[in-house]
Amino acid sequence: MAWIVARTVAQVLDATVQRLGERPALQARVGDRWEPIAWKTYRARAREVARALMAFGVQPGEGVAILGFNAPEWVFADVGAILASAIPAGIYTTSSPEQVAYITHHCDARIAFADTAVAAKKFVAAKAEMPKLERVVQWSGTVVDDPMVLSWKDFLAKAETVAESALDERIASQKVDDPCTLIYTSGTTGNPKGVMLSHRNVTWTAEAALGMLSLTPDEEGVSYLPLSHVAEQMLTIHVPMFNGHRVTIAESMEKLPEALKLARPTYFLGVPRVWEKMQAKMVAAGQAGSPMRKRIAAWARKVGLRGGYALERGKRPPLTYALANRLVYTKVRQALGFDRLRFAVTGAAPISKDTLEFFLSLGIPIYELYGMSECSGPATISTPAAFRIGKVGTTIPGTEVKIAEDGEILVKGQHVFVGYLKDPKGTAETLVDGWLHTGDVGEFDADGFLKITDRKKELLITAGGENVAPQLIEGAMKAIPVIAQVVAIGDRRKFLAALLTLDPERVLVDAAAIGSPAKTTAEAATCVIFRAHVEKQVEDVNTRLARVQAVKKFHILPDELTVDGGELTPTLKLRRKIILAKYAEQIEAMYDESES
Q1: What DSSP state is assigned to residue 327?
Q2: The pLDDT of residue 522
Q3: Which residue of 72, 339, 392, 481 is 20 to 30 Å from 354, comparing CA positions?
């Protein structure tokens, strides 16, 4: 996209305010009501934060840490830091005080923002490890009684001591290739890396995405995923800023259904686990319906799947598709708050074909995209006009994606990051001659659609020397409705095994159908009847896999893998090393009998 002109974030914001200043930028709950925030107010508040940061001595290039759930203040802190030529660094709310201290110290933060007393106390608890940190700004709740912590109101009051012209001078000195934000990787191994993205990176990517998806200022979005993640930053901050549309901020994952029904978004990004949980609830609700409703739903889903695959190939769906849409799909979309949805999107982790086909059969095609923090989010995108189930889209125009000789996906373009903060070695290993080495393995089909086959460093090499992609096995096993999560095991082993977790809502449905007394996932994990039920389905999946890919043993865990338990990153990716260590006894038990 050679026509895209590189801009700074401030230039984008100013242009949008000039064009659409009276239109709503954000919508958030205040007490018992939802209040809109216009673009001109958005800009004024971000500039106020910028001037307050300058009053506290924040210098260009210094980090500003932000820890909290999604809120307008999160956005204003982030954009305000960028306007002040500082570099905002989001921190996941699940982070421990030690992790908070690492990021805050690593990015040289003088000022940190926290949403609640709980978050503020994480900074206070580790302040000895952050000698440069001077102040923590708490934007809601009773302010922590500590000299380091001050309220949002008291912080903003300092803006009055800095003239608007002083901020304008700082903004005028910004260059498009200056770093403007830090995305800390969620750290599947070791400490997270600080991915430096420039003004060019984020504004170019935002404009390119708008062009591919043909978005207008009338779009509606919902912000609920962690704003410390690059995907949510692009969809909550940078794409809307370029486009001028409104984003409704959900206070938490639990409040997401309410926000969806209020906003009725035209686009929605869900990580695979979000879509899987929606699927499980819908399946459980469907099982409780009358026999007639079940028959109608089954018919509609069959028609929907055929129609979805026809649309994928640019063909007309069957004539009965319109009837199924009127009887079933429309009602499903309305119940979810998706009646205006045009783009249902997924990314950040692999999603099973079963989940993709489930929503496709209900008239909701989910478009996969692929990317990473190091390329400002997307490298390939699927669109309604160009998508394939199980593929992650085509290359963004104006960028390059190629497959190296060893199968690794390489990316080049104006969206590729500046480098890792304070890590020249890591930068040199990842960014070679302008090419971003993603660490992912994939392949293009004849139509230019990319398929991700594995992580380069996560390939399982069996004792027989066979290379097996764990994601392939895990995706196949997750097609079993009752299975929630799968961890494939088998590196340097004679055969493949797996750790499985169960979906609690589906357990109730399946247990009733097969005569198992199990009522919970823990009971199902030890129930002989339920295990035989799972084993039969695992064997069925094995028949569709190559012999070396077959799962010969499995262990059912009593509970799901979680972020709090340390098994998942904040973006819900598997922390394989931690899982292998935590469940070493269960894993060894699967192999002891066969390998003795």
Answers
A1: I
A2: 93
A3: 339
Domain with residue 486: its CATH number is: 3.30.300.30
Pairing assessment for the beta strands 24-30 and 33-38 based on DSSP bridges: antiparallel
Question: Model pTM?
Answer: 0.82
Domain count, the chain: 3
Q: Does residue 572 share a domain with residue 444?
A: no
- β-bridge pairing 220-223 and 246-249: parallel
Specify the residue for token string 């292998």.
580
**H or E stretch including 585?**
helix 584-595
Q: In whole angstroms, give the CA distance from residue 449 to residue 348.
A: 17
Residues 6+ apart with CB under 8 A from 419: 196, 427, 431
Boundary of a domain, candidates 412, 440, 456: 456
Q: Do 362 and 491 lie in a common domain?
A: no
Give the separation between CA 71 and CA 201, rounded to whole angstroms.
24
439 DSSP β-pair partners:
none
**Structure confidence by residue, pLDDT tens digits, 121-132:** 999 999 899 999
Residues of the domain holding 21:
9-200
Residue that is last in its domain, among 200, 235, 257? 200
Same-domain status, 426 and 464: no
CB neighbourhood size of 14 (10 A): 15
Amino acid identity at 538: V
Asked if residue 312 and residue 418 are part of one domain, the reply reads: yes
Tell me the two tokens of residue 42: 């958005």
**Angle CA(469)–CA(392)–CA(203) in degrees, nearest 5?**
125
**347-391, pLDDT tens digit by residue?**
877 788 888 999 999 889 999 999 999 999 999 999 998 999 989
Q: How far is CA 128 from CA 183, 294, 410, in A?
A: 24, 61, 41
Is residue 371 assigned to a domain? yes
* 460 and 496 Cβ atoms separated by less than 8 Å: yes
Residue 352 lies in a domain: yes
**CATH, residue 98:** 3.40.50.12780
